[in-house]
Specification:
alpha+beta, Butyryl-Coa Dehydrogenase, subunit A, domain 1, Butyryl-CoA Dehydrogenase, subunit A, domain 2, Butyryl-CoA Dehydrogenase, subunit A, domain 3, 3 domains, eight-stranded mixed β-sheet, 13 helices, 54% helix, binds flavin-adenine dinucleotide
Length: 395
């Protein structure tokens, strides 16, 4: 597969080489199977083992703990190439990396020493267990409780929509401890933890979604991550920032897959005496898709460079990248299906999977509306409205 020309020159030699390796892996081991996994709503275990063997599960784990320690842009390129092939597999990389990254940033030394090597080599799969039936966008509303009991914490509550919860060995859980948000590590084999599959989702159907119920689930006090009161604003926020960054790049790949499929079909399919690519209204869709892919990639690259530099502006840049990339992917998927006509909604064309997966991207890691709220507010901070403008409209 040829490297898209738009941003290749912005990458270092090492990043270009890494990207070519990720693309080859995705083309050989993911693209041919993604539709089947989607239909079967299942990702075979061998795939997680293969990802581990390639080092992709250790992408966010520092080298000293046995991970790949990828720089932010290379991490993004991995998620774009995997996202181009299969959003469910990209989701696994996302949540697993979120747990690893939060632990690396906020875990105690013994938590890092114990878990990071296992997360890096895939001995343990991580899942991010935050959402509850009554707490989605508003995570302040989390109702799962933790109470101290001697040397233990005891957790009770329900989590749902937990990506790869069916396979996870380790859950990063948000709960309330003395009514303050706190993050905990909960191993799968703890008593009082019950994991049930969630099936029939619209998109990312091979992401092994689960409901996780904790009924008096007892964990050692050493499983608390970070300090009580900082579970949401520090531990979970750190994980979500990486998750958002990963999903943004995944959407670049997804939108690119839509564009490639649409270009191929529009070149091959003839109606009214010419290929679809010759019809101007089809060209309009192809032009928007191509522009969307490039713009999304550039926003992601910008966010990646800021992340790499440790610049706090990376948080805002990542919101913007995720907002743009996920909406661009959803538009591109809709247009790709449109260009395919009836074939686009049939079972043999990946574009119908892209459309379903793209919808999910507008909901997870901060929905489109939540991002719009944040970005509108930050626009006022970046471009303050002076008093003259306010007075002009007040009468
Ligand atoms: C496939 C999939 C995988 C997931 N994986 C995980 C996972 O691994 N771990 C995990 O913890 N969670 C996971 N989630 C849950 C996900 O994080 C939530 O779905 C998301 O946070 C939104 O919450 P909600 O679905 O409860 O929607 P709600 O918060 O109920 O929102 C519903 C709608 O209202 C809008 N809305 C909400 N508040 C406002 C507002 N103030 N202003 C304007 N509009 C608003 C939202 O944008 C949305 O369109 C997953 C979800 C999906 C679909």
């Amino acid at each position: 597969m040829r490297t898209p020309p738009d941003t290749a020159s912005d990458l270092t030699e090492a990043q270009r080489t890494a990207r070519a390796g990720f693309a080859a892996f995705a083309d050989e081991h993911l693209v041919p199977y993604a539709d089947r996994w989607d239909r079967e709503e299942r990702l075979p275990r061998e795939v997680t083992e293969h990802l581990a063997a390639e080092g992709h599960l250790g992408a966010a784990v520092p080298i000293r703990y046995g991970g790949a320690g990828l720089d932010a842009v290379t991490f993004g390129l991995l998620h774009a190439e995997v996202g181009r092939a299969c959003s469910s597999v990209r989701s696994l990389l996302t949540v697993h990396s979120m747990v690893a990254h939060a632990l690396d940033r906020w875990g105690r030394p013994e938590q890092r020493r114990h878990w990071l090597p296992r997360l890096a080599d895939g001995t343990a799969l991580g899942a991010f267990a935050v959402t509850e039936p009554d707490a989605g966008s508003d995570l302040q509303a989390v109702a799962t409780t933790a109470r101290r009991d001697g040397d233990d914490y005891v957790l009770s509550g329900r989590k749902h929509w937990i990506t790869f919860g069916q396979y996870a060995d380790l859950f990063l859980v948000l709960a309330r401890l003395d009514d303050r948000p706190a993050a905990f590590l909960v191993e799968r084999d703890r008593g009082g933890l019950d994991v049930r599959p969630m099936t029939g989702a619209l998109g990312t159907r091979a992401s092994m979604l689960a409901r996780v119920q904790m009924d008096g689930c007892r964990i050692p006090a050493a499983n608390l991550v970070g300090r009580p009161g900082f579970g949401l604003s520090a531990v979970i926020a750190t994980a979500l920032e990486l998750g958002r960054y990963s999903v943004a790049w995944g959407c670049v790949g997804l939108a690119e897959a839509c564009l490639r499929a649409a270009l191929g079909h529009a070149a091959a399919r003839r109606q009214f005496g010419s290929a679809l690519r010759g019809h101007q209204l089809v060209q309009r869709m192809l032009a928007d898709m191509g522009t969307g892919v490039t713009a999304a990639r550039l926003l992601c690259l910008r966010a990646g460079r800021l992340r790499e530099a440790g610049d706090p502006a990376s948080v805002h840049a990542t919101w913007m990248a995720k907002y743009f990339a996920s909406t661009a992917a959803a538009r591109a998927a809709g247009d790709a299906v449109q260009i395919h006509g009836a074939r686009g909604i049939g079972p043999d064309e990946p574009v119908q999977r892209y459309l379903r997966d793209a919808k999910v991207m507008e909901i997870i890691e901060g929905s489109t509306q939540l991002q719009q709220i944040m970005l509108a507010e930050s626009a006022y901070q970046m471009f303050p409205v002076d008093s003259y403008d306010t007075e002009r409209t007040s009468g």
